[in-house]
Design brief:
mainly alpha; 0% strand; 268 residues
Length: 268
């Protein structure tokens, strides 16, 4: 095997392993269901409502991001990714998390415990299991969407990998997509928006509504492929009210994509 073929072979093995693990995860879910056991027992939701300013801030930021996405897609704008975009996304993710946390918890009526900021023994296994469950449907969605996808239509940060960023930029990219983006997005979409909607229309509606919004802000090519993950994240948060479980699942999903992208580039 040539050195250039090695990364491609590793990508293939990782994908096959991920698909096998995902199939086993769904088999376990099906077995529990067929045995009449609850797939995921629910925990009580906090009775304290989300602060109105946090909800309005989350809606406003989401609307702003959606508007920018629609305008970019409509006008066909293609911004050449630069290393500065990594640091901009890092600052934005940290900023969204910080501002939203202050709006949610600043008055200490709605507390971090109410939002699910208390890890349990199930947190990491649940997060990893959710990530694995997302692999198989996401792979199927990516196959269906492959005629519409290319490196030019990838997320801006992943496109930057093709420009061979320096080690510092690559580290910033990893921190952003694996840590900061999941922390900010799960606080925004699941804790604030979905939690607020669940208080009004119930989880049966809030989970798919917020999943659709989550997908939309990532653009239709990436967004359609992200719907399985978004639905699973919403379901897990609705049932368990565990913020860190959905952050772990989201971070693992992003980390897997980043590793596969790096290996694919190394083999091209």
């Amino acid at each position: 095997m040539s050195p250039d073929a090695a990364p491609s072979a590793v990508v293939g093995l990782l994908v096959m392993a991920g698909l096998a693990a995902s199939a086993l995860t769904w088999s376990a879910v099906a077995w529990r269901h067929s045995a009449g056991r609850l797939v995921l027992p629910a925990v009580a939701r906090a009775s304290t409502p989300r602060p109105v300013w946090a909800v309005l801030g989350a809606i406003g930021w989401t609307a702003f991001v959606l508007l920018n996405r629609v305008m970019a897609d409509t006008l066909g704008e293609r911004v050449e990714p630069q290393s500065e975009h990594v640091w901009l996304n890092l600052v934005l993710s940290a900023g969204v998390f910080t501002v939203l946390a202050v709006l949610l918890f600043g008055e200490w009526k709605f507390t971090p415990r109410d939002a699910g900021f208390v890890p349990t023994a199930m947190t990491i296994p649940l997060g990893v299991g959710t990530f694995l469950a997302a692999v198989l449907p996401t792979f199927a969605a990516l196959l269906a969407l492959s005629p519409f996808r290319s490196r030019e239509t990838q997320h801006q940060l992943l496109q930057l990998l093709g420009r061979s960023p320096d080690a510092v930029t690559l580290a910033g990219l990893a921190v952003t997509v694996v840590v900061l983006a999941p922390l900010a997005e799960e606080l925004l979409f699941r804790v604030t928006l979905q939690g607020w909607l669940s208080e009004r229309i119930g989880g049966g509606w809030s989970v798919p509504v917020v999943a659709a919004i989550f997908a939309a802000v990532h653009g239709w090519r990436d967004g359609l492929a992200l719907i399985p993950l978004a639905l699973l994240l919403g379901y897990i948060y609705e049932r368990r009210q565990d913020y860190f479980a959905v952050v772990v699942a989201h971070g693992a999903f992003n980390a897997a994509n980043l590793v596969l992208a790096l290996l694919s580039l190394a083999g091209s």
